[in-house]
């Protein structure tokens, strides 16, 4: 009897070890530990978990970065729910926490932000909705000359293409874009009644849409995309190695330097193209001119998206630096 009991205990131990091994091999990370470092409204988060292959965050302010260490910037004081997902080989583990932000960004209600948002101080509401306009030259396309891909300081160049009246895609004219001055700094891309988003034809193919015409609306899983936004200021460069000056028209006043809108969640302003950053060229209460990177992917041919004949017919050279310019107007 004792011998049989010992055999059963040994078998149970082997089964237990086997289960633990199976769970381990299933690839679920261990418990997540999060540490924080607070510098006023800028908070650094660091996560650790055994067997995690990747960390994905929702910082409660519209920012969704990846990495073991990430930095969140908070424009408003308050309590934010932080979500960290530790990705495993087969299973994920999630941890949430509340982060108290004592100080917001004192500059959040600056002229650029309030004009973009159409912020009403009396009601605390952001009322501006930006839309495409059916004007000549409201959209154009040209090469990026003499500057790195990440800096858009060269002069406006419409030498490759610009539109005439009535040439805008009809479906685009009901798209709406709005910037909210709230705790999440929400950017909302509402494609209108048709539920379709503007996509550049070359980028549409790379991102899995059916091959469209030159500009065309395409459906997404959700009809409205909500992301975060912020405006980054780039000062003029002036040193012995490089000299660069630029001015931005803000409410009729030329201000030195550049202002760049950054969108999170792979959101787009106007249409999906190469990136999610938009340099402001002119901003008033009624008009928003932006410039953005529209460089076509290098793999349009090698990836099997188009034939060389297709690209030749459109005059497209993959990888050639390309900028697009777009004028939006405030909805009346």
Put the structure in a nutshell:
The chain is mainly beta.
What does this structure look like?
With 332 residues, the chain is mainly beta. It has two domains: 33-101, Immunoglobulins (Immunoglobulin-like); 111-330, no CATH class. 14% of the residues lie in helices and 39% in strands. The protein contains four helices and 24 strands. It has helices spanning 2-26, 111-117, 201-206, 308-314, and strands spanning 33-39, 42-48, 54-58, 69-73, 78-87, 92-101, 119-120, 125-126, 130-132, 139-143, 161-162, 176-179, 186-190, 196-200, 215-219, 225-234, 237-238, 243-244, 247-250, 253-256, 258-263, 277-283, 287-293, 322-330. Strands 9, 10, 11, 12, 13, 16, 19, 20, 21, 22, 23 and 24 form a twelve-stranded mixed beta sheet that branches. Residues 5-11, 13-25 and 214-219 have low confidence and may be disordered.
């Amino acid at each position: 009897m004792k011998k049989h009991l010992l055999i059963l205990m040994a078998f149970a131990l082997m089964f237990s070890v086997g289960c633990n091994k199976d769970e381990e091999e299933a690839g679920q990370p261990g418990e997540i530990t999060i540490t924080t470092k607070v510098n006023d409204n800028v908070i650094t988060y660091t996560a650790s978990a055994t067997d995690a292959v990747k960390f994905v965050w929702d910082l409660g302010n519209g920012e969704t970065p990846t990495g073991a260490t990430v930095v969140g910037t908070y424009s408003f004081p308050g309590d934010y729910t932080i979500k960290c997902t530790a990705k495993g080989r087969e299973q994920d583990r999630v941890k949430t926490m509340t982060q108290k932000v004592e100080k917001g960004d004192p500059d959040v209600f600056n002229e650029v932000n309030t004009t973009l948002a159409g912020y009403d101080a009396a009601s605390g509401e952001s009322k501006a909705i930006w839309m495409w306009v059916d004007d000549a030259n409201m959209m154009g396309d040209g090469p990026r000359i003499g500057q790195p891909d990440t800096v858009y300081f060269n002069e406006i160049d419409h030498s490759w293409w610009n539109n005439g009246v009535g040439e805008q895609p009809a479906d685009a004219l009901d798209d709406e874009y709005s910037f909210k001055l709230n705790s999440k700094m929400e950017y909302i891309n509402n494609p209108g009644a048709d539920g379709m988003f503007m996509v550049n034809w070359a980028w549409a193919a790379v991102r899995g849409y059916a091959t469209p015409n030159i500009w065309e609306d395409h459906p997404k899983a959700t009809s409205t995309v909500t992301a975060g936004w912020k405006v980054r200021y780039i000062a003029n460069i002036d040193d012995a190695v490089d000299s660069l000056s630029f001015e931005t028209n803000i409410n009729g006043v030329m201000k030195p330097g550049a202002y760049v809108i950054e969108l999170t969640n792979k959101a787009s302003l106007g249409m999906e193209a190469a990136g999610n950053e938009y340099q402001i060229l002119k901003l008033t209460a009624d008009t928003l001119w932006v410039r953005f990177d529209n460089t076509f992917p290098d793999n349009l041919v090698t990836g099997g998206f188009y034939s060389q004949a297709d690209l030749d017919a459109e005059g497209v050279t993959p990888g050639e630096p390309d900028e697009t310019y777009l004028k939006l107007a405030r909805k009346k």
